[in-house]
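pasting input
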Amino acid sequence: MPGREAKELTKKSRRLRRVPYGVHAAYGTGAALILFGAAGMVAESHDTDPAGWAMWVGGAVLAHDLVLAPLVLLAGVLLGRLPYGLREPLRVAAIIAGCLTVVALPTVLGLGTRAGDASRLPLPYGRNLLTVVTAVAAAALLYALVRHGRRSRGRSAPRQPRPPGRSDFRTSANLRTSGKRGRGDAR
Amino acid sequence: MVRALHRLTAAAAAAGPKASSGFSSRLHDPRVAARLGIWLGASFTSAFVTGLISHFMQQPPGWLLWPSRPVSLYRVTQGLHVIGGLATIPLLLAKLWTVYPKLWQWPPVRSVRNAARRAPTLLLVGGALFQLAGGLFNIAYWYPFPFFFPAAHYWTSYLVMGALVIHVANERGKILDSGAPPLPERHSGAEDGLSRRGFFGAVAGACGLVVATTAGETVTPVTGTAVLAPRRPGIGPQGLPVNRTAVSAGVVTLPALAGGARTAERQWRLEVGGAVERRLSLSLSDLRALPRHTARLPISCVEGWSAEGEWAGVRLRDVLGRAGVRDDATVLVESMQRGGRYRSSEVDPPHWRDPLTLLALELNGEPLALDHGYPCRLIAPNRPGVMQTKWVGALVVR
């Protein structure tokens, strides 16, 4: 029914037209906050060192976009070359261990230790990080092993045969590609 | 307007992550990004609010009087700020990875509108990375920056929140969409990356593990699990961590440490002056002769850690009562430190009138260790650690 369709469309466009009031308020609030922050940054420039600040903000963006993110993509590609049953558990483990390493890195490097204050960074952080990361990797491998065992048993049963290396995914796309290698999160 | 919006949506769809063909994971997806964005929005808002609490506790505007209770309010808000901030790091990294293909859109700017949209995003991304990386370095006591961290962190928070509000307004459609039932997992064709559930599980696991390995530096019942925290309650002189040692504060020199403590004790005086009825000059034995009180209070550091101690000494209000001060007086507690931003701190009426606020002489049953402010330090409930002035030499009433 074209009449009803048109009505629906008008309703939709009216809804779309109604939204911007809130949006404009948000733009105004956001701009006000940014102006206030910038004004404070300039007013306290003896403390905030705006030029140094801008270098650090820009540096943070570049360090993430040009160093960290490509490294993560590379890790994704490498993990994509693992045997199929290991890929998912080890990707999860790599995300967890990688994030933990980033968070722990400044303490592990111990750049903030100071002679005369033993209560500052008092723990063996390198060893502790290694222990936690090893535990995460071990848990992932154990999970993969248990799942593999369950799969193999499932395969030997006469009913519901499963193709080798099928993952948990609920899609047929995976069935088609399960044999493919070398496709990670990026190429 | 509507047509412009439609055009914009169409452009966004065409420019969507899938359009840049190099990225094969189905997780470079607006819904995934929106879901992570909602969590990020919540955690950044929490950090903003708790950060403002900390800032205005340290630099209260004239009209604002913080209450001295609940005793551990600052401990909780600052713990939330720092541990929550650490847990935000995996969230932010996951979100940036999800939208990473959009960074390489070509051409980088399609229209004025597009530029107006991307500029706040750049500020948001840069500011968010700056806040989290800066905070992380700061709690690890690594200060490679040219600016005073608290000031830069404080003013940047307004920039980030402003950019965040604009970003939420821009992406409202995707945010509302993210609650809808998920698209079928195979919509992007053949790939074998993580499932959406696996990805969210991994990110949640990373956030959880970050919290599990750090929160014990302030949540004392689980101290032992804080294997990656920069502080361990219980490690330090008299079982309490130290932020500023007597040597680094310049209160004593190393040779003085070797011998002269007893002489210094005889010479030490607490001078009480300013707007008082009678000036006082109290020796250590004068203070010890006053009624002795104990209080179990935490040192709650702005860096997120906290540790409790059993403090004993005289009530600040008892000393001020002897000097005779107005009920609404403000007290400046001055350290013997020669300089430094935190050489003195202001104590407002709610705090100095609180019976738990002590001029402490003992910690955990012993005279204060030199690094904890010997011979006399301020300890008060619901107060940042940098304002628990050590090596007190004078009270100036205003």
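fyi Residues 165-187 of chain A have pLDDT under 50 and may be disordered.
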